[in-house]
Please model this.
Amino acid sequence: ATLFALNGLGVTLTLPGIAGVILAIGMAVDANCIIFTRIREELATGKTVRSSIKIGFEKALSAIIDGNVTTLIAAVVLYIKGSGTVMGFAQTLAIGIILSMFTAIFVTRCLLYGFVEIGLDSASLFGVQKERKTINFVGNSKKYIVISGVLFLLCIGGLIANKVRTGQILNYSLDFMGGSSTSVTFEEGTNGFDGSGNASDEFKNEVTEAVKASAGVGDAEISDVAGERTLIVRTTDLTEDQQKQVVADLGSKYNVTKDNIEIETISASVSNEMKSDAIVAVVIAAICMLIYIWIRFKNLAFGASSVLALIHDVIVVLMVYAVGSAFISVGSTFIACMLTIVGYSINATIVVFDRVRENRKAAGSRADVAQIVNDSITQTLGRSINTSITTLIMVLVLAIMGVDAVRQFAIPLIAGIISGCYSSVCLAGTVWFFMNK
Model:
């Protein structure tokens, strides 16, 4: 349905756009996990399958709506205030959220009732929630502070080390830095091209290494012009002497004339305006999400805790870029990764807070708030783990089977998914408890 909508609306699918689709899929899985968990809980009280489905959907509805609407607010703000790839991310995310919310609320309901109508109404087919021992998350808050503090220090240390070693706090790719573009058109019959004029991966790697060796640079990116026997190698900005050396070496090694080798200076594909637009959009989106959560939950501490958990996850992903700078560069995928984590983190936290709100209302004003928080997190723990594992499997496949650009996006996203689960389970509820107190 999402792909049909994207095609019908003529949305151009970029890598950040794919990130939006991934986040929407994760939220669709999350909505169904919430519904199934609620149904299993009702079955555990002895209700019939039909009654459990009805009550389960009713109880899951508020968490699904709040989580999706909160992320949809972020998508709208990103589309209005963002530019370039940020807008592409916002488009696919908004479409995916609307469709996934529809399928979770209506299609899943019809399917479950359909199973009951054809006789599949045994509780064992749906599963019954087992009684869980409450975990003292609030009592372990100091441990979580230490863990998060260590991650924060690693981030700061990595940024400082990079600044001292390279002069930049992160390993910015050519998308951020700009540089030189070397275009080489090879003669017909050159080994490494097929009959249609397309270069093999081995030949591309060979040419890339040749340019790096000639220019004396450590980073280069290659692309080709389909069917024209032309390869384009992007490197950091080359001096005049480096350009002459590259032309001479390539001409000698591959029997290419100087007229078929062109070197020009290129600007960064991720402009300063795009970066500033992305930052402004995220800040405005965070404020809008805080206000929405404040209104819906009638408590400012809920919104503030959600935003703090979100900031925590962004810092963890930034730590991965800083510590792994030798292997992971900051390019156009960096913005997509950060935006994905913002949406994923806030949705996971909303689910926990929805259960806190429900249990607090049922317990009354004199209830032990710490116990309510511990019970609520424990009750949603299965959903948090299941959703994270499901999304993690999808991103792991991208990291293992994807090309280098996709891998550069997937690896930090894996850390963000794990951090999102950790912050929602261990931090958000305990932070709310102390702020509310």
Summary: The mean pLDDT is 82.
